[in-house]
Amino acid sequence: MDIYLIVSLLILGAVTGLFAGLFGIGGGGVMVPVLTFLFLRQQFPADHVVHLALATSMATIVPTALASLRAHHQHNAVVWPVVLRITPGVLVGTFAGTFLAAYLSVQFLAVFFSIFMAFVAWQMIRNLQVSPARQLPGNLPLVAVGIAIGAISALVAIGGGTLTVPFLVWCNLALPVAIGTSAAVGLPIAASGALGYWINGLGVADLPDYTLGYIYWPAVLVMACASFITAPLGARLAHRLPIPTLKKGFALLLVALSVQMLLAVFSAQ
């Protein structure tokens, strides 16, 4: 890798780790569009560049989520019974979603990613209030929610926080607790997603050197080193800073990155 790519990946990993701890997200919303741009600049095969970005993002989320959930656990902000109840659905949905993503075109994935992130940003900006009587659903509905979260997370390579946090807040968990619990849910999502993209990329021709399936491991290692350091910092900030203002800023960032990804993918065709 050239020095430009290494420095870019270090910065990306640091920013991703900060957002992972701060918002309880895996960071795919940040990583995927930037990795797509960086991989195109490295002249990786255009037909697989988004698959590579998705897979590499998922693999990077594993250590990032681990650092983030550890920091939130130290603040007693992880509801472990909820994590255990939703994890089976998350594992099934994420693993199945990677098989679907492997057969979708780069253009479709880019458009789906951008539309989904725009929807998430809109939800963040709206900041809707929920009924105080609403509670978490039972085991089977929670498994179904986990399947949906996992499947969408696999298609857009997120740790699930952009879905899990709003869902838990909608169920009347306090925002810092929803963020911490989401960080824990992000670990099985990332692990299952990375495994699925690894399997689906095996045997694909013309992929760059040092890939395992669709996962480009040099990028994973560089970004993970940075994110593992900054994720605990983000978790500490999540318990101190005004989250509504930060959520709106992050929403604007999601929109900008989505637009950038669309421009990068379609200009490369």
Automatic annotation (TrEMBL):
Cross-referenced Pfam families, in alphabetical order? TauE
Which InterPro entries has this protein been placed in? TM_pro_TauE-like
Topology versus the membrane? Multi-pass membrane protein
Endpoints of the signal sequence = none
Q: What is its main location?
A: membrane
Q: Does the keyword Lipoprotein apply?
A: no
GO annotations of cellular component type: plasma membrane
Q: Which residues cross the membrane?
A: 6-39, 51-71, 77-101, 108-125, 145-170, 177-199, 214-238, 250-268
Organism's domain of life? Bacteria
The compartments listed are: Cell membrane; Membrane
| The entry's keywords | Cell membrane, Membrane, Transmembrane, Transmembrane helix
Keyword Transmembrane helix on this protein?
yes
Family designation: Belongs to the 4-toluene sulfonate uptake permease (TSUP) (TC 2.A.102) family.
Instruction: Report what the protein is called.
Output: Probable membrane transporter protein
Source species: Cellvibrio japonicus (strain Ueda107)
